[in-house]
From TrEMBL:
Species in which this protein is naturally found: Alteromonas alba
Keyword check for Signal: yes
Signal sequence, renumbered to the chain: 1-15
Keyword field: Signal
Pfam families from the UniProt entry: DUF3833
Lineage: Bacteria, Pseudomonadati, Pseudomonadota, Gammaproteobacteria, Alteromonadales
Keyword Signal recorded: yes
Protein name (Swiss-Prot/TrEMBL): DUF3833 domain-containing protein
């Protein structure tokens, strides 16, 4: 019993070290972020993935072609990796459901991504099977976007397993 108690305390202590962002802090912050306004058209992105030690394990660029299909935002993403490897293509279909809430779907995403708009910030949460070397891990993404103005956007993703941050993704995006 003592061993279970110690493991439980250790688990919750480590889980408390995971990133947690309060989106309501950005509700009144400018410039406002509109996914539809930012992503319709061509967007270029540059990004890195860092492991738990802070080492860069992926460096990549993304060409994003955004369009509207009715009220659904369609993002066709093409990836090019300078370091590491990953998906070469992904197509997101993101639909507003009301009150700043969105649902997103993509072929390699498990279930439905849930998104919430907070003024100049947007949070997207979803799960996916992430291939790493010869293994695949089911992980959760806590994906944050912030409008920077002048057609630029910063994205910070926290990749979590068992509630712990296993990797972090940083992406800079610019309208073309």
């Amino acid at each position: 019993m003592y061993r279970i108690l110690v493991l439980g305390i250790l688990f919750f202590a480590l889980a408390g070290c995971s990133a947690s962002i309060d989106g309501s802090k950005y509700q009144q912050t400018t410039p406002p972020l509109s996914l539809e306004s930012f992503f319709v058209g061509d967007v270029k992105a540059w990004g890195i993935v860092q492991n738990r030690s802070g080492d860069v394990v992926q460096r990549f660029t993304v060409d994003i072609k955004g369009s509207m299909d009715g009220n659904t935002l369609v993002l066709d993403e093409s990836f090019n990796y300078e370091v590491g490897e990953g998906p070469m293509q992904r197509t997101w279909r993101i639909t507003p459901t009301g009150n700043g809430v969105y649902e997103g779907r993509a072929g390699d995403i498990l279930g439905v991504a849930k998104g919430t708009s907070y003024g100049n910030a947007f949070n997207f949460q979803y799960e996916m099977d992430l291939p790493v070397d010869d293994t695949t891990y089911q992980v959760a993404f806590d994906d944050w976007f912030w409008a920077m103005g002048d057609g630029t956007l910063m994205n910070r993703s926290y990749v979590k397993k068992f509630g712990l941050v296993m990797a972090e993704v940083t992406i800079f995006m610019q309208q073309q």
